Amino acid sequence: MARSASALACGGFTTGSIRVRTEPMLRIQGYSRLDQVHPQVTEAVKRMARSAEGLFEPGIWHRLLKVDHLEGNRLTLETGTVLQCDDFANTLIGCTAVVVFILTMGKPLDKEAQALSSDGNVLDLLFLETAGWLGVEEATRLLVTRLRSWAKEHGYGLTRRFAPGYGAWPLTGQQSLFSLFQGIALSVQLLESCAMLPSMSRSGMWGIRLL
Asked: In the predicted model, is pLDDT for residue 28 greater than 70?
């Protein structure tokens, strides 16, 4: 791990332009027959997909950290930081390291959503938020593709993705995860509620083990 980790140790990841497809936006909102969607809705979807693409300011930060030990549902990292989740007990067995990450689609998206909400433009707001979450999904896909490529090259495999607030990992786990990025300039803020700003942001972790 030591010889292969330097390229992934800590840093930002540039995604380039992130595109949003309109078909998934419609399907997420329950439109199964795309040929029967009202033209006004179709136009709103196209307009907000392009608007979101122009507003995206994606940022991704990640750290590769060695596992000190795993005891039941408590994962202790090389930093001394303890992450706790009932799902860790079985899924992380044999993992020698983890990759933690934080990503965001940026502040402009939130500002536009606030403007649409103030204007009472519910339809555009709905589709802008849908496009934003599809942007988060695409940014996550780009990151995990890079990680899997790195892992395969060095003989490692990734576990499924863990995220505070999903499954058995409490949302309060955000506090420990964000502490791992102390001293790094992030454009994501953790609120007292453990939600993130900008709202179109995501954090999480993958375990890494030898194949």
From this structure: yes
